[in-house]
Amino acid sequence: MKIGGRAHNIEQAEQIAKMGFPFVEISVIDPLKFCKEELESLKKIKEEYSVFYLAHGPEEGNAWEPEVLKKELLPKLKSIIDCLQELSIELFTIHFWMDKRFIDESVIKDKLLLLKEITAYASDKGITLCIENLSNPGLIFFRFLKK
Q1: Interatomic CA distance for residues 29 and 23, integer angstroms
Q2: Listing from the earlier edge strand, what are the strands of the sheet with 5-7?
Q3: What is the value of pTM for the model shown?
Q4: Is residue 107, in this structure, part of any structural domain at all?
Q5: Count of domains in the chain?
Q6: Any idea what the CATH number is for the domain that residue 18 is in?
Q7: Chain mean position to CA 89
Q8: Where are the alpha helices (DSSP H) in 27-126?
Q9: 28-38 burial by CB neighbour count: b if 16+ within 10 A, else e?
Q10: Is 87 inside a domain boundary?
Q11: Looking at the domain assignment, is residue 134 inside a domain?
């Protein structure tokens, strides 16, 4: 078993690494900031403390509008995935709300198409995509994803 910590910024990532944890889960909210400003610092921390990273993506945004997600979220996630490779990150958690109590099943079907696209993109880059279930019981995901 390995236990690590979640970091929302560079300073927290370094604190977790200094404490001797083997991994740091880094929050990646803004792909531009992450790829242009934070990547080099994270590489230095990785080298100095021999940690590995996991990544946690941004909030989904408007969970009820698949077209908005396709236009805004998908490009953001793809940019993040491209940068994750530079840190040898193999696991990326995203938010993707599919709770049928709040989202119409037709919207969920459209969102599944987006999920397939981003999953394939991540897989092609050697990254496993994880979905944080938020309010959804795990069985809801199983029901939709087994189709």
Answers
A1: 19
A2: 5-7, 23-27, 52-56, 91-95, 128-132
A3: 0.89
A4: no
A5: 1
A6: 3.20.20.150
A7: 11
A8: 31-33, 39-49, 66-68, 74-84, 105-124
A9: beebeebbeeb
A10: yes
A11: yes
The CA-based diameter of the chain, rounded to the nearest angstrom, is: 49
3-state secondary structure of 139: helix
**Residue range 55-78, pLDDT digits in tens:** 999 999 888 999 999 999 999 999
Query: b/e per residue, 55-66, with b = 16+ CB within 10 A?
Result: bbbbebeebeeb
User: What is the span of the domain harbouring residue 29?
Assistant: 5-66+75-101+116-145
Give the Cα separation of 15 and 5 in Å (integer): 10
Dist CA 7 CA 143 (whole Å):
32
Q: What are the structure tokens assigned to 146, written together?
A: 């087994």
In whole angstroms, what is the distance from residue 29 CA to residue 94 CA? 10
**Rounded distance between C-alpha atoms, residue 76 and residue 94, angstroms:** 11
Residues 6+ apart with CB under 8 A from 36: none
Model confidence pLDDT, tens digit, residues 2-36: 999 999 999 999 999 999 999 999 999 999 999 99
Task: For residue 96, give the nearest of 85, 106, 108 by alpha carbon.
Answer: 108
The answer as to whether 123 is a domain residue is yes
